[in-house]
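ugh ok fine here u go
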Amino acid sequence: MVRRREAHNDGRPTIQTRAGEGSEIAEVTILGSGSRPPLVYLHCWPADTEHMGALASGLEDRQVISLPPPPRVHGRYPTDFGQWATHYDRLIDSLELDGPLYLAGWSVAFHFCFEIARRRADGERPCRLLVSIDSEGPDVHANPRNLRRLAAKLDDATTWPEARSILVDDVGRNIIQTSESAVQLAIPARWRVAMAARHPASAFWWKASSRLAPLRIASFGQCHRYQAIPTPALIFATSRTISRHTDEMLGWRHLLVGPVEVVPVPGSHWTLLDHARGPNLVARLDATLRAADELGS
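structure:
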């Protein structure tokens, strides 16, 4: 049974819920039935247990295949982005799917969908469609490990305040968050758990979860390696996420260069697939998948 998060009035989870902890799937899980090509969903967070159920309940004549995250090694998830992506990619190969490959991911999980599509772009089994569920793109232009991209982004800035925002908000935030995560992982796991329980309102201990800290490090290490791909994509975005970006594609504009459709959806990052809002989102997804089926037939 999935533990439900206590929430604020606007649907945001309380900080006590500790992102990245809770119920989990440990093996490939198939939900639903049907003859149409399945939707492959990358399970990255415990909340995905509910999300994959919401997707499967609304997709007609189509299975949802949820792939588990990589196993922990000595109690820790990988901090290497490539290990996460390779783990999912191998599971996809093991499915031996006959039809087109449709990949979906919520939040950071979509980053792995993107990487898998990039790896398969020139192969025999390319990804036919990417589905982003409120995923913010990586700060590829603002990552200090790629000074050429950073310089180009600063050169594009029309005003000094905009350039300052890039340096302070993007570069500075990346460095601080990644350094914070490295410190958190250096703390013994039992101490992290005990301190999180003792200080439930502390953002530091909330972010020290066994999953969130490794993922932040992995994402930072990958930022300068991203390359654009022409794979078609469907992007679901909440108004709150859209408000954080000047890019209408939530930061993916320079990376998803094929046909892309952005669909604004109600709710927050945590509630867009709940029982009240999920059915409309899934109906829109179902229509897009059916159109993709027809193109591939």
